[in-house]
Structures are given as structure tokens and as C-alpha cells.
Amino acid sequence: DGSVESIAEFSVIAAGTPVSLATDATTFASGDPITVVWRDAPGARWDWIGIYPRGGDPLVDSYLFYVYTDQSVAGSVVIDESGEGDWPLPPGDYDAHYLLDDGYVSLASTQFTVTK
Questions:
Q1: What letter does residue 36 receive in the DSSP assignment?
Q2: Rounded Cα gap, residues 96 and 36, in angstroms
């Protein structure tokens, strides 16, 4: 009769496709929002973006800031005062990591710098 009983979105990504991660710029002034964009991610329930000092290893070092990706295989988040952690980021060099399902396995990373 043309009625819809249920709809479920899904995505298909070729096996072995790496996650892509980038920021909207490479340098930000302290306190400026930082947009992090990803694509080809697994989209697990608790995937998240973690911000670490440059060279930090998520398996060993503590994150400075984080925000969840809301199960999106492609999308963006804004790193600003609405997230969890130290804000504003002080001047320095940082890595953003796409981390899998509330764990510390980094599937992709990108670098950025915060200035005064």
C-alpha cells in the first residue's frame, strides 16, 4: 500500500579503507574553535576524537580534550568550550586522534598548532 514500516541508514565502505582525519586549518589562536572532519570511519557507538600534545600516544598518554563522533562514518565536530577537557588549549603543538569505540586505538591522526 506504499506505507513504510521502518527505515535504517547504513553505509558501505570498502574493506581496508583508512579513516581520513583533518582540521579546518593548521594553526589556531588560543580559544578559537577547531573543526575536526573525518570520513570512512567505522561509526561505532563510542568512537571519539581525542586531543593530545604533539607526539602523544593514546595508549600511554592522557588526552587533554575529547568529543564523541555520534556514530557517524563521516562528519565533523567542533572542539570548543562545549566539549570535555581543558579549554582553551594553551599555545602549543597538538595531535587530534580518531579513537575507536571508547578505547585508545587510534585509527587516524592529524596535527595542528595553537598560538597566543
A1: E
A2: 8
Amino acid, single-letter form, for residue 60? V
> Which cell is 84 given?
570535555
Q: Is 71 helix (H, G, I), strand (E, B) or coil?
A: coil
Nearest to 88 by CA among 53, 114, 54: 114
Task: State the 10-residue block means of pLDDT for the chain, 116 residues long.
Answer: 87 87 98 97 96 98 96 96 94 98 98 97
Q: Closest Cα to residue 79, out of 65, 95, 58?
A: 65
**Grid cell in block for residue 42:** 567505522
- CA neighbor of 57 nearest in space, from 106, 5, 116, 111: 106
Burial of 88 (0-12, 13-18, 19+ CB in 10 A): middle
This prediction has a pTM of: 0.90
Contact 34, 24 (CB under 8 A): yes
∠72-36-44 over CA atoms, to 5°? 25
